[in-house]
Amino acid sequence: MSRRAKWIWGIAGIVAAALFAWIATHMLGLADMGGSDSELSVDLTDADEEPSAVLCSSQATADAVGARVFARAREASQDPEALARLEADSLVRLDRTELTEYIEARDVAECSARLVIELPRGTEPAFGYSRRLRADIDYVVRGGSGAIDRLSGADLVITDLAAADLSIRERAFEDTSDEEDPIGALIEDIEGEPDDRPDQPAQRPRPGPPAEGDPVDLLPPEMDGQGR
Question: Is residue 133 part of a domain?
Fold first, then answer.
C-alpha cells in the first residue's frame, strides 16, 4: 500500500471516529449536561423564594395581623371586653398578598396585601350595615415566630373597630337568652291540665229503644212539650 493510500485511510478513520463520537453523545443525552447547572440553579432559586412568599400569605400571618389590629382597637375602645368577644367571632384573611422584599440574613419578609375582616351576624348596625372591613396594608413578618414587626395602612379599620357600638349585639344576645320557647308554650297551652279547661255544657243522654207495646214518639225531645 502506498503512502498516499495510508494517509487517505487514516483521515477516513479519524473522520469516522469523530462521527461515531458525535452520534453517541447525542444518543446518550450527554450534550444536555451543560444546561443542567442552569436548570438546577433556577430550581434552587424558586425553592428559596417560596418560603418567603408563603410567609406573607399564610393563615398564621393573617391571624397575627388580625390580633395586632384588634389589640390596637381595644386600647382606644370604651368597651374592650365586647371587642374581645367580637374578635373571637370574626375571621381575618389576607387577599392579594405580594412579597416586597425578603431579607435572608434576618429571616424577615416585607409584604403587602388587602386585609379583610369578616364580622359575625348581628354587628351590621355598628359598622354601617356591613359585615366586612377592608384595608390595603403593608407589614413585616418575621420567619419562625411569625410575629408582625411593623404594620401600616390599617388605621381606618382600627378606628372603626374602636368606635363601634357593640351594645346592640350584646342586648340582642340577652333578649335571645331570656326569651321563652314559643313552641313549648304553645304545646303546654294545647295540652294543659284537665282542671284548667273550660267547662263543657252537659249533654242530654239519648233515649233507649222503646219497649214493646209503648207508642212510638216521633217528635224530638224539644218539641215534645209543645204538642201536648
Answer: yes
- pLDDT for 78-113, tens place per residue? 999 999 999 999 999 999 999 999 998 989 999 999
- 70/12 Cα distance (integer angstroms): 84
Which residues, at least 6 apart from 95, have a Cβ–Cβ distance to it below 8 Å?
A: 113, 114, 116
In a domain, 44, yes or no: no
Tell how far CA 12 is from the center of its chain. 75
* Residue 111 covered by a domain: yes
CA distances from 42 to 22, 36, 94, 149, 179 (A): 29, 10, 28, 31, 65
Strands lying side by side in the sheet with 108-118? 91-103, 108-118, 132-142, 148-152
What's the structural domain count of the chain?
1
In this prediction, residues 15-24 reach a mean pLDDT of: 75
Q: Tell me, yes or no, whether 181 lies in a domain.
A: no
Segments forming the whole domain that contains residue 70:
53-175
